[in-house]
Amino acid sequence: xxxxxxxxxxxxxxxxxxxxxxxxxxxxxxxxxxxxxxxxxxxxxxxxxxxxxxxxxxxxxxxxxxxxxxxxxxxxxxxxxxxxxxxxxxxxxxxxxxxxxxxxxxxxxxxxxxxxxxxxxxxxxxxxxxxxxxxxxxxxxxxxxxxxxxxxxxxxxxxxxxxxxxxxxxxxxxxxxxxxxxxxxxxxxxxxxxxxxxxxxxxxxxxxxxxxxxxxxxxxxxxxxxxxxxxxxxxxxxxxxxxxxxxxxxxxxxxxxxxxxxxxxxxxxxxxxxxxxxxxxxxxxxxxxxxxxxxxxxxxxxxxxxxxxxxxxxxxxxxx
Length: 320
Fold this sequence. Notes:
The protein has one domain (16-317). It has 15 helices and no strands. It has helices spanning 2-17, 19-53, 61-64, 66-72, 76-88, 92-102, 108-115, 123-134, 141-159, 187-225, 231-238, 242-250, 256-269, 271-281, 286-317. Helix 2 runs parallel beside helix 6, helix 4 packs across helix 5 and helix 5 (76-88) packs antiparallel against helix 6 (92-102). The radius of gyration is 21 Å and the shape is globular. It starts with a helix and ends with a helix. The model is unreliable at 165-180 (pLDDT under 50).
């Protein structure tokens, strides 16, 4: 609680002492949420919620998720969470995992395993915003994907070796189904589920926007306290909010390969903003939050190693 007090005090002083800059940061956060996050995530959150609530995944998932089930040792529902997490971006992986666990479609043990690696930046964000727009290297898009998403995939494969059997297999799920999950409800029950899903999606979308604005302000406040020309300070500032962090690193007066490594590491970690969004939207307790943070750190270290190897490869074999 004391740490939270100092963070809130810092934000209050920033708003009072630098109102113009704080206004610009808040506006930037709102525009990021309105233009990028909301149009992308809202339809996915709503659609995934409806698919889960109406039990429409049972017949489609086995055929779609066989490779992922074999690779990660997860259930078909777990494979669906992996697909959402790697295709839709933060915090869809955690949101879908949380919904599946609440609906008793995956066990607590499987959810614990999935939380460790399903939350990542979306491929569209990496290819368009990170590689093409900020780094001005669209040809490096595949390399960024391999290092950022590949490190998460590798961690998921390695961490799942001891978790191949879960408490509630999906093949036996029909025995545990609740009446509320009947895929053929009457019209009144159907609209009740739709309304509940819409309300839940709106609530989570607004919550994400509030976190984005708050951490956009925090990023601006921290940038006043640390020198942005030093790589370590630049990295700390960038870890507050990933979009702003990528922008700062891309424009920093550093060698290209140094910017490439820093951007890769920050994008793999996801930033404190994405961390807070994930913990909030998934309702993680202390134990699960610690597990999630440790997993993100391990994924970031894997990404750092992979980016260093790729830089070494380019320096040795493609010096031009």
